[in-house]
Amino acid sequence: MHRTYRSVLTAIAAGCVLLAAGCGGSAPAPAGNGTGAAPAAGNEAGVAWIDKVCGSMLELSNTVRSPQVDTSSPQATFKSYSAFIGSYISGIDKAVQTTESAGPSPIAGGDAMVKGILDPLKDYRGKLEQTKGAVDKANTNDPASITAATTALQVLKSPPAFNVPSTPEVSSATSAAKNCQQLQQLSKQAPPPSGKPAGS
User: How far apart, in whole angstroms, are the C-alpha atoms of residue 133 and residue 145?
Assistant: First the structure.
C-alpha cells in the first residue's frame, strides 16, 4: 500500500513544478547583450505589472512544489494529503486575488496572458475541492473509501493546463521582471519527493 502512495507522491513532486512553466516558462530568454539594462522608457509600468503577476505565480509555485506527505501509515498519508491540498487551494485563492488586484494590463497581450493562467487555475481549484472531499472521507477500515480517495488523488499528477499566449510586449516585460526570471528558473528545477516512507 505504501508503495502506491510513494508512487503518487513522486508524480506530484514532478508535476507541481510545471506550475512555474505556465507563466515564466512560456516567455523566451531575454534578448540583447545580457547586461541587464533597464527597460525602455515608457515600459516601466508594464514591467511592474507583469512582475506582480509573476510574483503571485512564484509564491504559489513555492507553496506546491515540495509537498510534505507522511507515508508512515495510511491514515497519516491521507491526513497529510488533505493538509497539502488545503494549502494548495489557499495558495490558488491568494494567487488569483493578487493577480486580479494588479488590474488591467498596460501592455498588449497581458490580459490574454492572465486569462490563460487564471481560468485553468480556477478550474483546477474546483477539482482540488472534490479531491479533498474524497480524501477527508477516507477510512482505512473501508476499502471502497480508500479506493475513492486514491483515485481522486490522481488529479495532483496533472497540474493546470495553462494557455499562455505571448506578444513582443509581454516577452520584453517578462525578460525585465525579476519575479518572472525567478519563475523561469524554478520551472527548470524538478524537486525530489519529500515524503517520509515508513521504515526509511
Answer: 11
pLDDT digits (tens, 9 = 90+) for 138-193: 998 899 999 999 899 988 888 787 877 778 998 899 889 999 888 888 766 654 44
CA angle 181, 65, 17 (to 5 degrees): 55
What is the DSSP track for 36-103?
Answer: -PPPPTT-HHHHHHHHHHHHHHHHHHHHHSS---EESSHHHHHHHHHHHHHHHHHHHHHHHHHHHHT-
Q: How many CB atoms lie within 10 A of CB 112?
A: 15
With the CA atoms of 68, 23, 164 and 52 taken in that order, what torsion angle do they form, in degrees rounded to the nearest 10?
120
Distance CA 32, CA 58 (A): 25
Mean confidence (pLDDT) of the chain: 77
Is residue 29 classed exposed, middle or buried when 0-12, 13-18 and 19+ CB atoms within 10 A define those classes? Answer: exposed
The conformational region for residue 42 under phi > 0 = left, psi -120 to 50 = alpha, else beta, is: left
Q: Are strands 196-197 and 70-71 parallel, antiparallel or unpaired?
A: parallel
pTM given for the model: 0.76
Contacts of 108 (CB under 8 A, 6+ apart): 167, 169, 170
